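subagent[fold] <- orchestrator: predict structure for attached chain, return tokens only, no commentary.
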Amino acid sequence: MNGHASQNNRSGSPSAPSPGSSWRVVPTRTIAVGDTEFAYRSYGHPGGVPVVFLHHLAANLDNWDPRVIDGIAAGHHVIAFDNRGVGASGGTTPDTIEAMAADAIAFIDAMGLTEVDLLGFSMGGFIAQVVVAERPELIRRVILAGTGPAGGAGIDKVTRVSYSDSIKAALTGKDPKQNLFFTRSANGKSQAKAFITRLKERTENRDKAVTVTTFRTQLRAIHKWGTQPPADLGTITHPVLVANGEDDRMVPTSNSHDLVERLPNATLRIYQDAGHGGIFQEHRQLVATAVEFLDS
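subagent[fold] -> orchestrator:
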């Protein structure tokens, strides 16, 4: 699909990174994907293969950990976007992972990109698997974090876990991610608070909140992913880095081991005393590993 990009005080190619080195201030742009405007941010080191970030359930652009995305952007061109119906992007949220993947591919094509790396976290990891299976020539390397294969163990329970922890969070005045992403150890609790604080570092031009309708639609898509027959991951021969915490309550860590066993060219990193958000808790380790993986 053809696309056009727009943003105040900005001109040039939509795929060109914005000046600046901090996720806290990188401007939000828009690009037309067909007849729908998609919101995105593009910055970091110019040249090379861009790294496209695919985010998690109920997430918008401001839910990426600045330490992770800034760490990778220090040496790579990074692009993150709101998929259809999410945050500041227009349209209606798809109710299948496959449709979300089709939109991700359309976004990449609209940006004029012919080769990208993918970093998919949680639901974004589901999307990444479909993207690389559907358009293998478009993808160079893949990072799958806190995620699992179609039909993976416990993925059909994400709805129950998400609602339960969201209610507990509301009753205790916490962000649901504190319970969903982190362990309940003293270290986990401390890391959860630090993560939530980092998410608030951007104070201006923040993204639009994800609606309840989008949240529920995404949950339906995740449930379908968790109950459908497993895909043949043996056809994905790309280099893949799989990362997770050792105690993932949302997408059980056994799924990370399953991915590595079924993907022909995969490497596994498991973080101790960490949960679903292990890549945020151990952001220093993740960035070092990811940069080495992307540059190898």
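orchestrator: received. Logging for downstream: The longest strand covers residues 36-44. The longest helix spans residues 212-227.
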